[in-house]
Amino acid sequence: MVDTQPLKRIIATDCGSTTTKAILIEYVDGEYRQTVRGEAPTTVEKPLNDVTKGVINAVTELEELARLKYSDQEISFLKEDTIHITDKDEKQGVNAYVSTSSAGGGLQMMVTGVVAKMTGESAERAALGAGAIVMDLIASNDKRPNYEKIERIRQLRPDMILMAGGVDGGTTKHVAELAELVAAADPKPRLGSSYKLPVIYAGNNKARDIISDVLQEKTDLIITENIRPSLETENLGPARDKIHDLFMEHVMAQAPGYSTLMSWTVGPIDDKLVNIPIMPTPAAVGNIMQAIAKQNNIEVLGVDIGGATTDIFSVFTESFIFNRTVSANLGLSYSISNVLATAGIGEIMRWVPFSIDQSELRNMIKNKMIRPTTIPQQLEELILEQAIAKEALKYAFIQHKEFAVGLKGAQKQREIADAFAQSVSGETIVDMLSLDLLVGSGGVLSHAPRRSQSAMMLIDAFLPEGVTRLAVDSIFMMPQLGVLAEISQKAATEVFEKDCLIYLGTCVAPVGKIKPDKVALSVRIELPNGDFFEEDIKFGEMRLIPLGVGEKAKAKLSPGRGLDLGAGKNQEIETELHGGVVGIILDTRGRQPFILPEEAATRMALLKKWMRELKAYPEEILQ
Amino acid sequence: MAQAYSPGLTVTESIIIRKERILPLKGTVLVKKGDKLTSEDLVAETLLPGKVVPFNLANKLGTIPNLVKDYVKIKEGDHLKKGQIMAETKGFFGLFRNIVRSPITGEVENISSITGQLLLREPHIPLQIKAFIDGIVVDVIENEGVVIENKSAYIQGIFGIGGETTGEIIVLADSPEDSISPEAIREEHKGKIIVTGCMVTYAVIKKALKNGIKGIITGGIDDHDLKELLGYNIGVAITGHEDIGITLVVTEGFGKIKMAAKTFSLLQKFHGKKASIHGKTQIRAGVMRPEIIIPLEFKEEELKEPQNKMSILEIGTTIRVIRQPNFGLIGKVTALPEELTKVESETLVRILEAELENGKKVIIPRANVEVIES
Lengths: 623, 374
What we know:
By secondary structure, chain A is α/β, with parallel strands linked by helices. Chain B has three domains: 52-121, CATH 2.40.50; 158-289, 3-Layer(bba) Sandwich (Glucose Oxidase, domain 1); 311-373, SH3 type barrels (Roll).
């Protein structure tokens, strides 16, 4: 996208299932900044049944706050109950309005493939990348009997189905059989029965006629290029684009008020005012993360932990391969009880520096589930919620690593032998040692009372290796910036750098395990004021060296014998460490493996020591 | 801000209830507008499509898929009896004939010459919907269902398990802070809905199941007991489908929690009266809470759609604390300071000041209370 004349004022909204968040982006003194934000409850459900009401309310708040900020009552963004778009630089109106949406449960899809680990996996990747929740993957080889598959398809009621299977020109029998199963189930769309369920066929091109014969009547069939034209090629783009088109035409058009909202989202592209499609929220997040990774030539891992789900996004390898996973039942309110069921009490308690009666903890978790909007008032409850968050994040990350394997990205070539080897062995491309930036968002990470708590949650859950910058997304602005990138890459990335992220600092963690009395890390850090921090840190310790936002420190880092900081075992590295609101965190507790003592008293003593070092909690609770 | 919106559960002595009773698929509505119904009356019925049974015919015949059409003796849409011949090969001079019979009674849905698969469908499964509450049919949605209205005493629970049931309310607990032992459940309680006070234990539920109790209304339940009862840990709060032979409505939460005085006295007042209850709970989009509906006598002209009232927090409002500390206690709001306040966990939140029923003055995050309508 070429930015022609700078847009002066842009409004971007994200219509979530509970809150509609609006931000104002302005071009001030030669750069884009996010200046004002407003929010209002989403109004897609009863009694209002119209998403635009919530958008108007959020934008009204934006308008009021902008008037206050600039002490100017003439500023206005609304006109005749809609967003006022103008091509002029004036107080009334904005130059563009863009939006993302996950209201009404987002985009829910079912995918099919012949071999689960091959075409099935490709279909799943296309759907997830397009911002969908994948309700189920039905494959010819998934071991369920056919009647069970039919029952499952019928029960699910997805928004759409993506069918893959077979390489171009290959055998058609299995894809035909899958189509017959879908036809037999006669699936109905989730939002009403007034239209046929959209089905995208992106499999073997030789089977297109057969698929048409079987599905044309019963479904709204769309045929596109094969997602896996050959075993060694993956081509996700066309299917992903079709998913986006259908999301707009079918899913969004069915949701109350969306057809109006779709007519509001406009912005200039090549000097012409055009409609900017509403994006599914996670697709927009993927957009901005890829843009940032490419622009700075870095590897990025991002997480958004919500009440019901945890999304993980990553951009790894030199080809900037993007992956996204949704852990649908790992979250901190609605799904909190499922974190307990997945991890077990023991795994949660290993992060808690005091003992608590197990039945009390179980009841506390269930009470949070049934009253999801409550806030931990007591310190103990805050620590428990953060312990649960660490486990939710850990499990979501495990799922992400398992998924981010095999063929990635459009048109990536590789040998057929690799295709089999990687899919079967499930070797992940997520490499924590080469990761540059870890970004957290979601209430528990973005709004922790102390930023060092966020840093600790990220470190304990993701176990970053070597040198990794840590950040939180202050108000989860990534969705809006992702869709903004569609009209102005410059505005999106500038705001991302300056206003979206709050840098916590940098974590340094040698990989490997040695005896506790041995030195794990020798550091010499030159701080901006000319002071030096020098220490030979033994295994099993944490250190916090304050270094402010925007500050950098030169560091010589030597791993202990047998340990690795990214340059190979025992290899010293010289690098620049970035500061943040927390600072530099040196973590010699070991990686691969990272082990906490089994014995409770010993473990609690260590937890307290680390928490004290990071000033994560008030001293009284760590006595 | 002198007042703020705060959600709460409805507990009221008299309200107009509107219930939609809709079929999952289109079918026949059995009642008409103006009909007076009791909870057991059927209002609509439909036939759910039977299970699809895929059958690999080519394989059974020992032939290739596109030759299947030469051997089949049935066509799409045909009704089949179990054992009926579906296909037959010619064999050699009458020998080695391969006969394939239908594994089910049902219908032929599809014959594929591409895959050689047959899709058979079992007979339709009838599904009927009951009124669930005593009341009047105020609207008929053609081929789909009805809307029933009545005037009721009404209590929303916080969490429940088990589906819809009806029965007479029997209050077994002496007070809202009291709980009962298994011995309190006797033979004559069969088919009733019992009220157990602040708590129900697994032992009490087991006895209730043994004695044919239809439902239990309780202030609290221990999560451990719930797991024991269900045999699994509830991961996500979507409940109501459990087939355990009893319906459970929890009014306050997990642990031992005194039942709200208003709830308890309402149940006491309607001791011996018929109630319709269900445990369906869903805590996300489209929030659903368990309900206790006790129909009252009413005249048709009383049936006016209830106004959606927003619970308002203001000075003097009665509230209940819904998170530790002081979980379950009732109090009155004494102040609603506007500025964000740091609470013990160092979280910066909007708070309120309140005086609790035990005389203690406290500050509580606004998110941690619910309004009790007086």
